[in-house]
Amino acid sequence: MKSLFRKPLIILVQILVVLVMVEVAARVLFPKFTDDKVFMDRAFSRLLNSGVRFKPNRDNYSRKFGFTLSADSETTESTGEYTYTSKTNSLGFRSREIQPATEGEYRVMLLGDSMFYGVGVQESGMVSAVLEEQGSPGLSVYNYSVSGYNTVQEMIVAKTYAAALQPDHIILGFFIANDVIPNAIAFVDEEGNYSTSAKMAKTLRNKLKDSLGVLYYSTALRIIAHRVYVPRLRYQVASSDDVISRSYALLSEFDRFANEHNARFSVVILYPRDSVQGGMMQLWSNSRKTGELIHSFCSQNSIEVLDLINYMNTGEHKERYFFKEDGHPNEEGSALIAGAIYKDRVEPHRAR
Length: 352
Prior knowledge:
It is a single chain. By secondary structure, the chain is α/β, with parallel strands linked by helices. It is about 50% helix and about 15% strand. The protein has helices spanning about 1-30, 35-50, 115, 125-135, 150-165, 180-185, 200-210, 220-240, 240-260, 275, 280-285, 290-300, 315-320, 330-350, and strands spanning about 60, 65, 75-80, 85, 105-110, 140-145, 170-175, 185-190, 195, 265-270, 305. The strands form four sheets. Strands 6-5-7-10-11 form a five-stranded parallel sheet, with helices on both faces. It has a two-stranded antiparallel ribbon with strand order 1-2. α2 packs across α7, α5 (about 150-165) packs parallel to α9 and α7 (about 200-210) packs across α8. The chain is elongated, with a radius of gyration of 23 Å. The termini are far apart.
């Protein structure tokens, strides 16, 4: 009888020894993950996938917008994948100065984050530039997108500059990877400035900790969770009713604002590479669900919507239309996005 249990017991002890060794190694190699606060700060930042709170000592801090880009600036950024130069106008946007409207002109105000800003691509390859070229002559596209902005900040931009720009069409890029959760924390205060809710941030941090479960109590498991599990949680949290409902409210507010300014309003749903590639990665993250919810809300509330998953939804598309490491659309991807916007949302309105 003793020999019957001896072998399983030895195997169990060996497994426990290996687990202890892995845990000790994790604590030695990744000491910051042993600190509860540091780990939760990192995990929460990965959950958001975007900045939300902006401190006055940050470069280009703005009480109104959270932060802005330097006006009349020119910067060149190089990585192993790309080199591009970004020039901003007097308002701090990667766009031309506002010009007087001309007869027959159809004017588009493009709002979004880095996906529309054009990270990695030269000016001629930006979504705004390609869109304008496809609609030439007579189509003018003003790109008021800023890397790192969420829908709340984009709303403030629209309210600040739409009167001067007088767009015929406001097109909002909605990036499911880092718009939904920040939208639940941020809001426009009574003075029209960008603000955040400490209460909602705390609620989401608690939700994150509860979702981590036993993974929270091991340094080794924390490392795995940070890399693999938190991105999955991002879309689970984003798709929860109490979180995504805030984005619904913002999209409805945008639609009303555009109507008040006699402008059409369209939402363009943008996806990260893990959504586009399909396969096990997409199934694991279940990221497309968030896009489906946004698409469904817009459709049910008569808000014009373009769902780019209809154009980019395979592993081949992931390799073709995105930078491999950076994750933003490359020039070919930007051209595809611009073509879809023009064909589905802009051209039909110009024809009327």
